[in-house]
Known about the structure:
Number of helices of chain B: 0
Structural class of chain B: mainly beta
Structural class of chain A: mainly beta
Helix content of chain B: under 10%
Radius of gyration of chain A: 14 Å
Radius of gyration of chain B: 13 Å
Oligomer: heterodimer
Mean pLDDT of chain A: 95
Shape of chain A: globular
Strand content of chain B: over 45%
Largest sheet of chain B: 7 strands, mixed
Amino acid sequence: AQTVTQSQPEMSVQEAETVTLSCTYDTSESNYYLFWYKQPPSRQMILVIRQEAYKQQNATENRFSVNFQKAAKSFSLKISDSQLGDTAMYFCAFMKKSNTDKLIFGTGTRLQVFP
Amino acid sequence: AAGVIQSPRHLIKEKRETATLKCYPIPRHDTVYWYQQGPGQDPQFLISFYEKMQSDKGSIPDRFSAQQFSDYHSELNMSSLELGDSALYFCASSLPFHEQFFGPGTRLTVL
């Protein structure tokens, strides 16, 4: 069975600074995807970034980038130039590479961005 | 771009009543997933459908059932509601081997 662990229940960062959210996972699968989802106070689940396990290059989406360490089973999210709108709960999620597999979420990290 | 549509957005029911939640996936997405998110918790997978057939089942109570129709929309039917069923219910849709996109959720309150 796959597990996802987020060891930081809460983080805070000042506007314009950089923050890194940690995520580790456990799996025996070789082909899978990893995701970061953002859940702001509206409770909408928004996809932030995706990483395919077979790709060595770390994914980047504007101010968001990941550090994917496959051997260590680590998948951290770096947010650069933090903005007030980044305040949200962030969930790390794992999905086996199949046409219909479910997402397995970590327990989330609540990020507060201060002015 | 079109997103996943869920209805209703809010629902209040009494214990032992029934509820039906509806989900309309993004056009051309053939896979639908249902998740339940309790207060302060991460989303938990309930059930999924691919091409109108159930593809996977998670921690879904026997009191709940779901199906996907010919137009790919899906309905989650919940009977004999309990206080513990109060949660945010998400529907997500995807293309095969692609990321899942979530709807806005249905907030169910059981009194």
